[in-house]
Design the sequence.
């Protein structure tokens, strides 16, 4: 069986000025910037991308953005493109986060355009999928996840698919302190892997990392990360402090 390197990504959301971002990332570089057991990605707001990028130079940390526009340039006020991110040595980009879908009206079709644009520009998309509380309670979790996944990956080739990272983030678990049970999370992760097998073949599906996101903390991470199809975490709140984020990296290293 292929062993997938665990990936811990910090989504800082709309937090930290450049100065605060620099303080945090300097701590992370000192603590986990040399280890290679776990792939670690930090995703600051656009305003700190360049500062954080310079601070992680020479370390093993990688740089991610939280969003991007599918076009390379043009009259899209307030937006940022893949070539702009690449020019700042960004390697990853979170796409289709539930906050973008719910608060900014992003559709599956729009998210798909971004995924294709990211891949075209050698950026690794972290494609987020996940159901709301109402959808879980009405028993449509797998249907929702399937729709978001298949639409988000439409047109992605078998060759480029291993560059994609999937993040399963149940909306009801984000920022609420309510973490999915290991059984709930593993069930959806295994389902996602079975869909990836259908879309891209088994060997490709075995290479794709599927992260869990939603109130992941040092206390609940070891059990989640030990699941067969959980290959890491997309961390919100616990990524805002070096101590908890470093503990999450250690938890991932321990089950690697
Ligand atoms: P929390 O870890 O704060 O629940 O956020 C998860 C998330 O949305 C990461 O993208």
Sequence:
């Amino acid at each position: 069986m292929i062993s997938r390197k665990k990936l811990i990504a910090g989504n800082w959301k709309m937090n930290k000025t450049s100065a605060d971002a620099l303080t945090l990332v300097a701590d992370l570089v000192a603590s986990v910037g040399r280890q290679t057991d776990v792939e670690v990605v930090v995703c600051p707001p656009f305003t700190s991308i360049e500062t954080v990028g310079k601070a992680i130079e020479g370390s093993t940390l990688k740089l991610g953005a939280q969003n991007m526009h599918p076009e390379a340039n043009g009259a899209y006020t307030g937006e940022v493109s893949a070539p702009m991110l690449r020019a700042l040595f960004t390697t990853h980009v979170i796409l289709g986060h539930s906050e973008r879908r719910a608060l900014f009206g992003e559709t599956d079709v729009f998210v798909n355009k971004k995924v294709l644009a990211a891949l075209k520009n050698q950026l690794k998309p972290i494609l987020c999928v996940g159901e709301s509380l109402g959808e879980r309670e009405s028993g449509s979790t797998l249907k929702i996840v399937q729709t978001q996944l298949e639409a988000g990956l439409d047109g992605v080739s078998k060759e480029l698919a291993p560059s994609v990272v999937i993040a399963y983030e149940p909306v009801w678990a984000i920022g609420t302190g309510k973490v999915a049970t290991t059984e709930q999370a593993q069930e959806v992760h295994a389902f996602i892997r079975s869909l990836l097998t259908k879309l891209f073949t088994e060997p490709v599906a075995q290479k794709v990392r599927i992260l869990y996101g939603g109130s992941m903390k040092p206390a609940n991470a070891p059990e989640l990360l030990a699941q067969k199809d959980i290959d890491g975490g997309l961390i919100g709140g616990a990524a805002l402090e070096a101590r908890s984020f470093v503990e999450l990296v250690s938890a991932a290293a321990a089950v690697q």
Summary: The mean pLDDT is 97. The chain has one domain: 7-254. The pocket of 1,3-dihydroxyacetonephosphate is lined by residues 11, 97, 169, 174-175, 213-216, 234-238 (CB under 6 Å). The radius of gyration is 17 Å.
